[in-house]
Design goal:
Radius of gyration: 16 Å
Strand content: 15-25%
Largest sheet: 4 strands, parallel
Oligomer: single chain
Helix content: 40-55%
Shape: globular
Strand order of the largest sheet: 2-1-3-4
């Protein structure tokens, strides 16, 4: 049994980090990672998101003879809908899994992320998944994006500030960390937040595991 985690950006390091977290979440799930062959090392705007969707669609998943499920591991869920139309196995996006977990119990939730040019896309995804009315805010990290992403300690600090603002200023009852490349930072912050902090990669793993083993 194989569950493929697709990283829609071109960074092998990001793929490795997400696969490691996915395997720690459910060692028995048989997670393997695939990195997009073309596109961008960081998906930071809607044109890059569109290219990522094409990259996801171009991946040959038929080589996995025992394929049981697929995770699309970028927060815009690029290519998710197309994969669902072509595959006969469950496909889950990390934005989908993260938002649905955060909205559980009719909670108001926020997304904390680093990419201002993807706010509208995140809001559309919340509407797409039926939780738009529960989305309190999309909170952004302060400062230069490249600087933030290149310095792990700074990323954790700035994401933590965005999470705190979502709780104290927007009334969020849960916060999703919005981004596959933010998975390590999300793990570091998970024990610090005053409300449930949702790590989208582990949530996607749990969701796909339920879908692949329920019947």
């Amino acid at each position: 049994m194989t569950i493929v985690l697709i990283n829609p950006n071109t960074s092998p390091d990001t793929t490795e980090a997400m696969v490691r977290i996915a395997r720690e979440t459910l060692p028995e799930a048989g997670i393997t990672g695939v990195t997009a062959r073309f596109g961008n090392p960081l998906i930071s705007d809607e044109p890059a998101l569109a290219v990522a969707a094409q990259a996801v669609a171009s991946i040959d998943l038929t080589r996995f003879a025992d394929l049981k499920g697929v995770i699309v591991a970028a927060f815009g869920d690029p290519g998710l809908d197309a994969l669902r139309q072509t595959l006969r196995v469950p496909v889950v996006g990390i934005a989908e899994a993260g938002m649905l977990a955060a909205a559980g119990g009719r909670r108001r939730f926020s997304v904390a992320t680093t990419t201002p040019d993807l706010v509208a896309a995140i809001e559309r995804r919340a509407e797409r998944y039926g939780v738009g009315k529960q989305l309190a805010s999309v909170r952004l990290t302060e400062g230069d994006l490249a600087e933030t992403m290149q310095t792990p300690g700074l990323l954790i600090k700035r994401l933590g500030a965005a999470v705190e603002a979502a709780v104290s200023q927007d009334g969020a009852e849960a916060v999703v960390i919005g981004g596959g490349p933010l998975a390590v930072a999300a793990r570091a912050l998970s024990s610090r937040a005053r409300v449930p902090l949702i790590e989208p990669v582990p949530e996607a793993v749990r969701r796909i595991w339920t879908l692949t083993t329920c019947c």
